[in-house]
Amino acid sequence: MIIEGTIGTKAALVVEGGAMRGIFAAGVLDYFLDINHRPFDFCIGVSAGSTNLAAWLANQHGRSHRVITDYSCRKQFIDLPRFIRGGHWLDIDWLWDVTIDEIPIDGWELEQQMIPLYVVTTNVDNGEPHYIQATEQNLNQLLKASCAVPLAYRDYPQLDGYEMTDGGVADSIPVIKAYEMGARDITVVLSRPKGYRKASPKSTWLIRKLLRDKPQLAQAMIERADSYNRAIDFIYNPPEDCSIKVITPPDDFGVGRVTTDSRKLQMGYEQGIKAAKHLTA
């Protein structure tokens, strides 16, 4: 869906996260690579959206597909019984160590691009979003912090002296931030079908209990639905001086946050390619 408006001087690409749902954006961005589609002045990514964007900027076609359909499906990464025993449900440490060793993102190549990447993280102490520009030096730790789903991953990566966690907690779809940064032509890649709105958590008491030593983070998680839905409202009702193009999965998108079914993941990837072809036709 394309929402027309007056296009400004800056164009931005915003990519939502969503763990395994990121396979859709992987398809979109791989197709963008295929046709050298880069009409953007800057991009902002959250969680899996930030890793997708980093691979895209580094010209590493297929990397995100491989991470999601292979490494992220392994027992070493997703293990609910381990979580019940007190470990990580999603072991970000293992995932980062093995992928950095075997298929690292080319930080040097990323820095050669004229399109800066801003990655969203959430400050654990105050629950506020940080928008940090990726560099070759901070890339791995920055992406790890943005992907560190609280509770499912029990640690908080350190970044610039702060404990950080999943950027999606504070700003799941940073389209308003892109506008504030001067973008008036914004392309947004979502990981949920059109019409999705996030429901508020029912057990707020449980979130506060589990994060009793991080009360501001708990509050940010409780308010996440409100922040998410404000972004959706902005996307479909932008200011008059802003044009927004929205790329969403189709209604039959079958990938959830922890889906490991190879058929569903491959279909989600191909749906991303198809959506990107439609946008750029």
Automatic annotation (TrEMBL):
Record Pfam families: DUF6363, Patatin
Motif segment (DGA/G): 166-168
PROSITE patterns recorded: PNPLA
A Gene Ontology molecular function term of the record: hydrolase activity
Residue positions of the active site: 47, 166
Residue stretches making up the PNPLA domain: 13-179
Keywords for this protein: Hydrolase, Lipid degradation, Lipid metabolism
Record InterPro entries: Acyl_Trfase/lysoPLipase, DUF6363, NTE, PNPLA_dom, YjjU-like
PANTHER family tied to this protein: NEUROPATHY TARGET ESTERASE/SWISS CHEESE D.MELANOGASTER, PHOSPHOESTERASE
Name of protein: Patatin family protein
